[in-house]
Known about the structure:
Strand content: 15-25%
Number of domains: 1
Pfam families: Methyltransf_11
Helix content: 25-40%
Low-confidence stretches: 1-16
Structural class: alpha/beta
Largest sheet: 7 strands, mixed
CATH architecture: 3-Layer(aba) Sandwich
GO molecular function, one term: methyltransferase activity
Organism: Streptomyces albipurpureus
InterPro entries: Methyltransf_11, SAM-dependent_MTases_sf
Mean pLDDT: 84
Number of helices: 8
Domain Methyltransferase type: 58-151
Order of helices and strands: HHHHEHEHEEHEHEE
CATH class: Alpha Beta
CATH topology: Rossmann fold
CATH superfamily: Vaccinia Virus protein VP39
Distance between the termini: 44 Å
Amino acid sequence: xxxxxxxxxxxxxxxxxxxxxxxxxxxxxxxxxxxxxxxxxxxxxxxxxxxxxxxxxxxxxxxxxxxxxxxxxxxxxxxxxxxxxxxxxxxxxxxxxxxxxxxxxxxxxxxxxxxxxxxxxxxxxxxxxxxxxxxxxxxxxxxxxxxxxxxxxxxxxxxxxxxxxxxxxxxxxxxxxxxxxxxxxxxxxxxxxxxxxxxxxxxxxxxxxxxxxx
Length: 214
């Protein structure tokens, strides 16, 4: 085990058993992620993105595919990715994304201000039952009134080589509501990488003007 790498993960708030996997497989995962375009993955959601000008944060940005796409669309983007190897892979592919933070849920202690758009693609399922309420509270703080948050959830047997949970859409919607985030869209479908045992939910939330817990 790379003790320095594991320490960095704990400092960033990343759950143990997650960072090592993504660090050790960064290049392979980069090729996999980059084989799909942002437009293909989110084609049903593009009309739901906040109007420009807008500030966006891609949380768990990986190799920067989505952050780069949002930048091209005109958003002011902060990419958040705790795994340094993934950030290095992103730097080779997406120089247009200029703001990167080595931070992670549930704390996201390095993010400042509020955002009109939060994107969490294949991230939420790494959090434990205890971490998810704290993470949702923090995301609600970061989201501007009227802002939107996009969450994708992986469903199916969790892989054995990293920490992951099959978190239901219903649980996520109910938790978001507690922190002033109402559901405005729910969709999903099969796995675009062709894995028969995997399917996805896509959720879009909007922060109520007050943001008060329900």
